[in-house]
Design goal:
heterodimer, A: 147 residues, mainly alpha, Fumarate Reductase Iron-sulfur Protein, Chain B, domain 2, 2 domains, 10 helices, globular, B: 314 residues, alpha/beta, Glutathione S-transferase Yfyf (Class Pi), Chain A, domain 2, Rossmann fold, 4-stranded parallel sheet, 15 helices
Amino acid sequence: MNEKTGLAPPKSPPVRLTRETVGAGFKKRVNELSGENLDACYQCGNCSSGCPLAQEMDILPNRIMRLAQLGLKNELIYSQTLWICASCFQCTVRCPKGIDIQGVMDTLRQIALEEGVDHFGPDQIDPGQASTVPQPGLVGVYRKLST
Amino acid sequence: MAKVAYYPGCALKDRSSHLDRSARDATLKLGFELDELPTWTCCGAVPPVSEERVMNLVAPSRILKDVRDSGRDVLVTICDFCYNTLKRTNYSIRNNEITRRRVNAFLADDEPERDYIEKKEEQWVDYTGDVRVVHLMEYLRDEVGYDAINRNLTRPLEGLKIAPYYGCVMLRPQNEIQLDDPENPAIIEDFVSALGADPVSYPYRTECCGSYLSVSSPDASTRLCYRILTSAQKHGADAMVISCPLCFYNLDSRQKAIAESYPDFKQIPVFYFTQLLSLALGVEEGRQGFDRHFVDVAPVLDMIREKTGKGGRE
């Protein structure tokens, strides 16, 4: 059991903005794949405050949105947040700008998987659990978290 | 007896077969039959996010097209994952012309390969999203009516305090699902009241139980489920009611792991809504599959027996 007492998640590491990373077309690709306009996000933080899993994340959902606006691909695809998000749509429902944040998260997962960042394979499952978890859990976890 | 097209999905055929059986028992008591589709496949459990991934829409679209080809326009399903996937697929076929054309191109291509179904000598007609995907709870509310259910009860669950748990994909994303208000829903509360029981109001009813994280990050799911269950208990719940097989797994089986992590935790029985419905309609306890629950449901059954006596409502 993870000993976590405070509410604040670990601070995101400092990032370096350069013309190359910001202009590399990553943001455009996320916009296209998700069908959302990342620039609509004005950092109100409603997504992070409603997220039931925010305490488990290394980068909060609103920070994910900000990093995506800046096109910081590496910070995003190596973030643990992508693999902690349970796609429950709480953020999407509460976004005052109507952004499907869960869809953006799914898009980032898809890009991470394309880049070979696999998170969870069939060999990692506990055998006792594999024989008892209902199938939607198994199908869902492999479709979301592995290639 | 009226029949309605029914898609059970994989979990209801295997690890949640007690959900399937109690639903069939209850609906027969209410005067209609869940007519399982003659052929169906997995719906994919989660809908694809981006327009690039049209392949993932093919399986659910094929299921929906088969319903239309059989001349019906309503498809009932129970598992929240299937409901979400089928309904969202239908939504994108109905509202996005490019998706509709691409999915239909795949379906038409694949049709001659399906030698296991009876084919009609008809022209190919594109599937355009005409089938209405309906959750069984929604069907009970809108078609059967909660009043009608209440009139048919033989064992009303009077005095029982039940905490409705919605979870995530039954209500969200709301612009595509439109079952109820995503933040302040009432469909399960009203259902619980229709059974004669008292719905418990508590803050975590629409909070996620961890869903598939139960497989990849079980500790995170344990923490979420602990919060949900203890919140319901603090508000006086005797039992939880849910509709999703994965929520059931997380909230019921996971109570073992919760008890190991949190010594103060006390168990609380979890029921599928169809189990409570069929119990209240007089289906015997032996048919409910209670042996497959991790948490003993006997205390709640005792309460029901105590309130209703042996014969129930005369």
